[in-house]
Design a protein that fits this description.
- Strand 9 and strand 10 form a beta hairpin.
- The radius of gyration is 35 Å and the shape is elongated.
- The strands form 4 sheets. Strands 10-9-11-12-13 form a 5-stranded antiparallel beta sheet. A 4-stranded mixed beta sheet has the order 2-3-5-4, sandwiched between helices.
- It contains 19 helices and 13 strands.
- The protein is of the alpha+beta class.
- 64% of the residues lie in helices and 9% in strands.
- The protein has a domain of 208 residues.
- The protein starts with a helix and ends with a strand.
- Helix 1 crosses helix 3 and helix 10 packs across helix 17.
Length: 607
């Protein structure tokens, strides 16, 4: 077993890491899509469908794409910030590398830990592969069953074939699919992406009027026009790869629903049909399609989806603004799922002043370990201080610690340097400790220490300006969040009205069915009932329009806040460039001052 785990270890770790990475990235993307659909309730169904499909694609891409494409567009990293450190804090002892006196002990412990980690990862991946295999086998079995049902179906009457041919021509389909009748299906559906077949239920479809049959056929043909049978494989794959991920199932369910709603809207536009008539057709047929699965119409899940589809019929709009906004959202989402990562440009191409800001390499193992832990900063942080200067043909270290007073300390180096400098300090005196050429020096001359503080005063001023802008940005962010909460409240009200409209639509459909002769009731009573329902529906439409106006009113203040935020970002960029210039100048001045202190004897070498 250990040999198998060791042999498959790299493959197992890669699969496990890919699952974790894709689950996290895909989950975040799905939540963003969900929030966008809630905040923009009138987003077209076609745009919603594309967003949810992209959410499934994000999961698949993040799983199979191990190495994102690096885009070198960022500025090189700025110098590490130097925080003020309270002098009253106890000195941090230097850390060192612990080695074992017995050869092989450390290697054995590391190997045991690695083996344990690889072992449980191996078990998790094997379980995932086993469940995935079962799910794929079940999928293949369903596809074979559907193929057998299609083989037993009979050709549809010639009249339906002619209607399908005319609709295919109007929709500009390359070929007219076969139309067949089967008593083994409950709702119209389309099968086979390469050789499409439209399957129609026998008795339920025959009971429809010619116009209703035409709308139902058009719906199925629109799936072919939209390439839904090909596109559905991405959500199907994501649902099976991430069977353990609840958000993956949410994305697939929403994709299936919005795909049907997009076809509903396309039918109404293509045939110039009334939404009410089409809604009654949906109620009659109870259409609820799942990919490669024959769902039973009338089940609780089907009823819930049917109600939401009827609700979305009222949002069908020819508004160019809404369609444009929807597709812009889709394009932004498509860019978001691209596996890119932004990295810093190579410092070899930067200016010498910027190259002077790079961190010095570790000189010993002990100093490398000691540099990892940070020093607690209980007071206001000082601006970044340069740690390296570019000499004549070589790179020289600039590690120092400057104790200004009880609460202010400036340093460039590690926590070990801070502890080392504190050991030479007497009480609360001002002191400069620095390392030069492998030797350590201390300076107690007040005039020289004031000169050092003056060198870094411009950095403190720029840092203060950056802090002020950061505070303004935080306030604007808070106001944007407040508007977002208000938009969410309006969205909830719109959802409540939509649910009420769905209930009224169901009652209207039931009334129409009774008037068609399925139940004998007084005609005057039906007319009165339908009039009341239409009046109530118009009232709800007015309320929905009012809420839509409120939602649009939020756009202007949000745009103003975005402009303010962009302006502050530009100011922050200017200050960042200024900080780089000031840091480079301070590095050169500090280097000269330290050389002068050594040559004049103001700096005392310590052991």
């Amino acid at each position: 077993m250990a040999t198998v785990v060791e042999f498959l270890g790299p493959l197992t770790n890669t699969a496990f890491d890919s699952l974790v990475r894709a689950s996290v990235q895909g989950g975040i993307f799905i939540l963003l899509v969900w929030a966008a659909c809630r905040l923009i309730p009138r987003l077209p169904a076609s745009a919603r469908c594309a967003l949810w499909w992209l959410a499934s694609l994000k999961l698949v891409v993040a799983f199979f794409c191990v190495d994102p494409l690096p885009i070198p567009i960022l500025d090189p990293p700025p110098p590490a910030p130097v925080a003020d450190v309270s002098a009253s804090l106890p000195a941090v002892p230097p850390q060192s590398v612990v080695t074992s006196s017995t050869p092989g002990v450390a290697e054995h412990a590391t190997g045991s830990t690695r083996s344990a980690v690889s072992g449980w990862r191996f078990v998790a991946v094997v379980a995932w592969v086993a469940i995935l295999t079962l799910l794929l086998a079940a999928l293949a079995n369903r596809m074979r069953r559907i193929k057998r049902i299609a083989g037993r179906a009979i050709e549809a009457p010639s009249e339906l074939q002619r209607v399908a041919a005319r609709l295919s021509e109007s929709l500009e389909l390359p070929t007219t699919p076969d139309v067949r009748i089967s008593e083994e299906v409950d709702t119209p559906l389309v099968l086979g992406p390469r050789r499409p077949v439209v399957m129609l239920p026998g008795a339920p479809f025959a009971a429809l009027s010619p116009e209703e049959q035409r709308m139902a056929l058009c719906h199925e043909l629109l799936h072919l026009q939209r390439r839904d049978l090909w596109l559905a494989w991405i959500p199907a794959l994501a649902e099976r790869l991430f069977f353990f991920h609840p958000l993956a199932h949410l994305a697939v369910r929403e994709y299936q629903l919005t795909r049907e709603a997009a076809c509903d809207a396309a039918v109404i536009r293509a045939l110039d049909a009334r939404p009410g008539d089409y809604g009654r057709l949906l109620i009659t047929l109870g259409i609820s399609r799942l990919p490669v699965h024959l769902a039973a119409a009338g089940s609780p899940s089907s009823y819930s989806k049917l109600k939401r589809r009827i609700t979305m019929l009222r949002d069908i709009s020819n508004s160019r603004r809404l369609r444009t906004a929807g597709w812009v959202t889709v394009l932004m989402a498509a860019f978001a799922i691209t596996p890119l990562t932004f990295v810093a440009r190579s410092q070899d191409r930067e200016k010498p002043a910027q190259a002077a800001l790079s961190a010095p390499p570790a000189r010993t193992a002990s100093s490398a370990v000691a540099a990892k832990p940070g020093v607690v900063a209980p007071v206001t942080a000082q601006p970044a201080a340069p740690s390296v200067e570019q000499g004549r043909g070589k790179e020289r270290e600039l590690n120092y610690v400057l104790f200004l007073d009880e609460q202010r300390t400036m340093m460039s180096g590690s926590s070990a340097d801070s502890s080392r400098a504190a050991s030479f300090r007497k009480g609360k005196e001002q002191l400069l400790w620095f390392r030069r050429g492998g030797r350590e020096y201390i300076v107690r001359d007040p005039a020289l220490l004031r000169e050092v503080a003056e060198i870094y005063r411009p950095l403190q001023e720029v840092g203060g300006d950056q802090a002020k802008i950061g505070s303004k940005q935080a306030k604007i962010g808070g106001r944007q969040a407040e508007i977002g909460h208000q938009q969410a409240a309006v969205g909830r009200k719109q959802a409540e009205i939509g649910a009420r409209q769905a209930r009224i639509g169901s009652r209207q459909a039931a009334s129409a069915a009774r008037q068609a002769g399925r139940e004998r009731v007084d005609t005057d009573e039906l007319v009165r009932e339908r009039g009341e329902l239409e009046l109530e529906m118009r009232q709800l439409e007015r309320e929905m329009d009012e809420l839509s106006g409120q939602m649009e009113a939020f756009n202007e203040p949000m745009d103003e806040l975005s402009k303010e935020m962009n302006s502050l970002s530009e100011e922050m960029n200017v200050l960042s460039r200024k900080m780089e210039e000031v840091s480079a100048r301070a590095a050169a001045q500090m280097s000269g001052l330290l050389d002068r202190a050594i040559s004049s004897g103001a700096a005392t070498e310590v052991k």
